[in-house]
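QUALITY CONTROL LOG
STEP: pairwise intake check
CHECKER ROLE: data steward
CRITERIA: each record must contain a sequence immediately followed by its structure tokens, with no blank fields

ENTRY 1 OF 2
RESULT FIELD BELOW
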Amino acid sequence: MELNETTINVLKNFASIQPNIVIEEGSVIKTMAEARNVLAYATLEQEFPKSFGIYDLSEFLGVMNLVDTPVLKFKDQWVEISNSSGTTKVKYFYSDPQMLTTPSKELVM
């Protein structure tokens, strides 16, 4: 899976709200500030194949910048980030979603 520019920009924006995130399977991602005063939802053009937690979203985006044209392969315990030719690979381990701040209910407006 390659993340498009829109998805990367949404993740950068979410990193400014809360450093960690739980990404659920599908195309909707959401985050909430630690103080629970800011809530953000985004529906992406892409779909994530599985649910996983990232403890430091800025660090994750930085690791993706280490390779040109990052390709993500989602495994049970980690995501493998590699370049398009597959010569460079990085394992980024998931975080336990129970340790991360995430919205538990949907906001109805």
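ENTRY 2 OF 2
RESULT FIELD BELOW
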Amino acid sequence: MEYSDMANVEKFEAFPTCIYRFKYEFEKNERQNIIDLIITESIVEKNNKKVQRLGSQLDDHLHENPLFKKLSDAILESSHDLMEEHGYEYDSLEITNMWGNILKPNSLKSSHQPHTHSNNFLSGTFYIKASSNTSSIIFFDPRPQSSILKPRKKEFNRLNSDQMSFDSQIGYGVIFPSWLQHWVPQTKEERISIAWNIIVRGDYGEAGDLQNAHI
């Protein structure tokens, strides 16, 4: 519950969609080693030539690589804090996949089109190479009815906007519900990030409601 400054009016934030940001401190040479590995993994053979694959990479098991162990642990720790704040019961959290993304300006893979992450509960992205000229990640308002009537705005704020963006900043990650639609517009400079999905292990639904499951 959050109280407003309006006289005789109480404000209740109903059904909020929460997005979390965390900071990660690299160890010596860790960031450069990760960049080198992602770039190496992006080189594929096509028509008997070695070319760089842009966009999402094919290898989605980076969390199993020892180089990503410290970062994976930080992601899981932040996700545990998130689950505790929301008051969920669960057995464990598991990263199901993790992969690199390379976006370059003036290429077919300079952006990520609107999408969600199916078959998982939490997803996220972390920035390895970024600048003030690399694209933000943008989230859409998930309430379809909210756009039926839209009075003209004096200015955009968090109460009247239908999108929310987070700058791409080296060493920062964003965690969000996997079902939340998001996209990345065209980037003006090379942008390298890591993305992942997390499944929550435990009981789903209430016992006896005939819609429960153990995952």
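INTAKE CHECK: passed for both entries
DESCRIPTIVE NOTE, ENTRY 2: Helices lie at 30-41, 69-86.
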